[in-house]
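One such given next:

>
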Amino acid sequence: MFDLPDTERLYSALVARDPAWDGRAYVGVRTTGVFCRLTCPARKPKPENCQFYTDVAACLDAGFRPCKRCHPITTAAEADPAIQDLVTRLETDPGYRWRESDIAKMGYDPSTIRRAFKRQFGCTFLDMARQRRLQSGFSTLAAGGQVINAQLDAGYESPSAFRTAFAKILGHAPAKFSGPAMLQADWFQTPLGPMIAVSDQSHLHLLEFSDRKALPNQLRRLSQAVKGRIGFGCPSPTSLAKTQLNTFFQGKSAVFTIPLAMHGTDFTKSVWRQLQTIPAGQTRSYSQLADTIGRPSAVRAVARANGANQISIVIPCHRVIGADGSLTGYGGGIWRKQKLIELESQYSNKDTV
């Protein structure tokens, strides 16, 4: 998907166990015959014994076998049994109110778990569990339930704590999502975590991961634009987005035909439209993106426009990487960017974009 930088740069990343290169490059060690992630905890080989590759297939074709310590064929999160155990438990009972004492009783060190989840997901396990409970409350409200019932379904004993937690993610307290609605919000699960979609009856206005820090402000701006007339629901653009995202995550198609409402300047919109022309399975640098829109000196402005995108995946800002091939900032989290690029690598030989 991109040309690897020089061996010296990659070896430095290997020695530093730089997480920005996890899943983006692999090292084959000639003396052992194994290949590893650049973040592998094993003792580092000498530079002359290293051969770097862009993907797992290239390592296997070269005759290397996967390392049993860093499990390069699986994602980093999947290779950690503690993360897998806790995520499975959360999926089994999303309404359970987790505490650090529960983690300790399972034999895990809470501080180690906290660091592992922050490294892989950008949030702690307890943060993730709180979000899942809030999603239950959101579903109750969306179905016409009362705020008190949503609060209880979300596992909050305090009404004020529920309102505060709800507003922290959605930009408004639950009572604000009422009355005749021009825009309707829906919260749904994906393989990369919960997402929130906001649509009117004809266009999708927002599609974001629920833990994105910019989400509350994005929702407030949308609400102000429609004078507070935002509620719960799943209009046809949201329904289509959910269907096409499901197909995308199943590896069947990366084609999106959802009508989009883009909120931005003419320059920002031109960047977003150019992002949509990058085929799935390919990436571009910010400078390449600036060149293609005829503004080669506007690299920083292009980067800002990329970061302002509020329709994740459909407008594929995750396909923009650093000039040296390293992953750069992504509002949904670097770990999601890595997963999306890995997922889309299967589309590179398909007639899909």
